[in-house]
């Protein structure tokens, strides 16, 4: 049995592309039928591996019911280097392979290739570094905007409140960043994004024009 693990960040985002890509890869690589593939689907905003379908897949792996795990990219199976290493170790301990399509990476339990392991860890480092750099760019953009008189008057931008005329991240700031990022990548429509954030499409357009506030 081959496991195809798929994950998206919100309920509105579509899993179809990931499912199609992972199933096609599994069928071609292992010469199997769809009946030999189990698809695990997660829709959540979690930043770690505490997800229901992920948990079920790992349980099935530990019961020796899975021969290989296929994911579309590293970012779908883990959100940090720690999670990536932990997942790869648990998969390998039970004799299963880990196939990551986008990064063209295959980890097999019988392999003892230090170069392969180093490359795998390096990809995780870059993924986490990219996320941290995006966060830093967002903070720098906010600092610059706070010095602009435009933001000391009138309503606060989407995802912000004001404290004595200065921008302060609101409780839904992370959600706003996620939704705007998905809209920019054409993974979510502006209409659905506006519904998700309980705002208007005009506000979505203005927010996209101020991308530096959201790390875009």
From TrEMBL:
Transmembrane region(s): none
A molecular-function term among this protein's GO annotations: DNA strand exchange activity
Ranges of residues in domain Resolvase/invertase-type recombinase catalytic: 1-149
SUPFAM superfamilies: Resolvase-like (SSF53041)
InterPro entries: Resolv_N (IPR006119), Resolvase-like_N_sf (IPR036162), SSR_resolvase (IPR050639)
Matching Pfam families: Resolvase (PF00239)
Protein name: Recombinase family protein
Native source species: Halogeometricum borinquense
Phylogenetic lineage: Archaea, Methanobacteriati, Methanobacteriota, Stenosarchaea group, Halobacteria
């Amino acid at each position: 049995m081959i496991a195809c693990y798929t994950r998206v960040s919100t309920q509105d985002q579509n899993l179809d592309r990931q499912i199609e890509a992972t199933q096609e890869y599994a069928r071609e690589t292992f010469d199997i039928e769809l009946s030999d593939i189990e698809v695990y689907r997660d829709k959540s905003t979690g930043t770690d591996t505490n997800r229901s379908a992920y948990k079920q897949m790992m349980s099935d792996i530990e019961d020796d019911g899975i021969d290989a795990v296929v994911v579309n990219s590293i970012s779908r199976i883990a959100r940090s280097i720690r999670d990536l290493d932990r997942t790869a170790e648990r998969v390998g301990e039970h004799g299963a392979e880990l196939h990551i399509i986008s990064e063209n990476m295959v980890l097999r339990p019988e392999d003892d290739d230090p170069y392969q392991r180093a490359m795998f860890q390096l990809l995780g480092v870059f993924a986490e570094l990219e996320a941290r750099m995006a966060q830093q760019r967002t903070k720098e953009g906010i600092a610059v905007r706070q010095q602009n008189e435009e933001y000391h008057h009138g309503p606060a931008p989407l995802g912000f409140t004001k404290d004595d005329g200065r921008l302060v991240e609101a409780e839904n700031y992370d959600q706003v960043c996620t939704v705007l990022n998905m809209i920019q990548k054409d993974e979510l429509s502006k209409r659905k994004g506006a519904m998700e954030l309980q705002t208007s499409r005009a506000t979505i357009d203005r927010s996209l024009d101020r991308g530096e506030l959201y790390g875009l």
